[in-house]
């Protein structure tokens, strides 16, 4: 699933709901950079975390 996340896709972190809605900034190799509402820019290791796609927003 993470390989389908392109810049602009809205996501949530499954283990950090307090971070709020995030927008994918880049997806290179196993690293996804996401800008979250309440946590700022975070680099996610896609081999360890499956981000949750947010549809219809």
Describe this structure in words.
By secondary structure, this protein is an all-beta fold. The protein has one domain (2-53). 0% of the residues lie in helices and 42% in strands. It is built from no helices and 5 strands. It has strands spanning 10-12, 22-28, 31-36, 40-45, 52-53. β2 (22-28) and β3 (31-36) form a beta hairpin.
SSE topology:
Layout lengths: L9 E3 L9 E7 L2 E6 L3 E6 L6 E2 L4
Antiparallel strand pairs: 1-2, 1-5, 2-3, 3-4
Label this structure with key terms.
57 residues; mainly beta; 5-stranded antiparallel β-sheet; globular
Strand content: 35-45%
Spans where pLDDT lies below 50 across 5 or more residues:
none
Order of helices and strands: EEEEE
Q: Roughly what is the average pLDDT, rounded to an integer?
A: 94
**General form:** globular
Q: How many beta-strand segments?
A: 5
Q: Note the quaternary state here.
A: single chain
What number of domains?
1
Residues in helix, %: under 10%
Distance between the termini: 18 Å
> How many strands, what sense, and barrel or not for the largest sheet?
5 strands, antiparallel
Quick structural summary:
The protein has 57 residues and is an all-beta fold. The protein has strands at residues 10-12, 22-28, 31-36, 40-45, 52-53.
